[in-house]
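Notebook, student rotation project (T.W.).
Task set for the rotation: take a protein with a known small-molecule partner, predict the structure of the complex, and write up what can be learned from the model alone. Partner molecule chosen: pyridoxal-5'-phosphate. Sequence and SMILES entered below by T.W., checked by me.
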Amino acid sequence: MLQIQMVDLKTQYERIRPEIDDAIFSVISSSAFIKGPDVKQFEEELKSYLGVNHVISCGNGTDALQIVMMSLGLKPGDEVITTNFTFIATLETVALLGLKPVIVEPESDSFNISVSEIARAITPRTRAIVPVHLFGQCADMDGIMDLARKNNLFVIEDAAQATGADYFFADGKSKKAGTIGTAGTTSFFPSKNLGCYGDGGAVYTNDDGLAAKIRSIANHGMKIRYHYDDIGLNSRLDTLQAAILRVKLRHLDDYNKARQTAAGFYDKALAGCDGIVLPGRKKYSSHIFHQYTIKVRNGKRDELKKYLEENNIPSMIYYPGPLHMQQAYRYLGYRDSDFPVTDALCREVLSLPMHTELDQKQLEYITEKILGFFQKQ
Ligand SMILES: *Cc1c(COP(=O)(O)O)cnc(C)c1O
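Predicted structure of the complex:
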């Protein structure tokens, strides 16, 4: 029987095992576990891959968001606009710093934050917008940067799911996800498009002053040893993880292509299936399919998920509940009915197996079962 996984990191490792093992053993034999040379080298290599002036590595993607917000000098009560349809880290870091999260609806087709909803949410106290490039496709950065310029706002791109995605501006130029706003953040959680073998994260920026501040805040607020200019935190990328990431960065474009090939197969095989809506593609962004997420119509999502499970096909619901209804965020005072677009997405979305090792046989099996489910109806 076919063994299908949501994410297959083991097969991916088997293919690059000699490179990875070499990288790991050379770190161990040098014993430079903290801030070893691979950390600096990885930052340099990611910098040139992204075409950005500064990459500052840190402990994980949640820290990356927190460090940026601390470095921008945001004050308690400052309003930060973000989307209701994302992983909790995006909202959590805003709340943790005593800033006021202002939650807005995503677009139903792209799943990304809606520019018109951001525009409606801006007040004189708004200081920043945090778009998330969800599932591997960029949010509408022309629209977001335009609002930011007009209202003098910071833009922090949460690019944790979009490492390597390209944004195409209206004027024809392009930039990598995370390098467009005031700063961008990413996560190297193992299942991300660029993932390590544990935790890791990074911040990107083109602003020299901000970069220095970020580096200091990630290191206890220290620029000169044992002199503390800011209240900071301790957030570092392990040398071992940096060495692994140097290997995986060399394969990133191929990995993203493999995901796009799998997505292309899904698109073709499932086109015309009435019961589902395929992921919306936007002209202004490439899509590197961190997730391949369909919408299942007519209340059939959970039934389809169960049917796939019975046929040994895993699937996941990203994300099952709107953030404004989570217990911890009730204090923000939103009503249950405030976010109908998010509600509908949480009821309809289903992410299919998506990783770099999916083969033709697996994809045929998955799509045949999905089509079969709807034929039975
Ligand atoms: C994974 C993820 C994060 C957090 O990354 P960690 O490294 O797990 O802290 C933040 N935002 C989004 C959108 C993510 O997908």
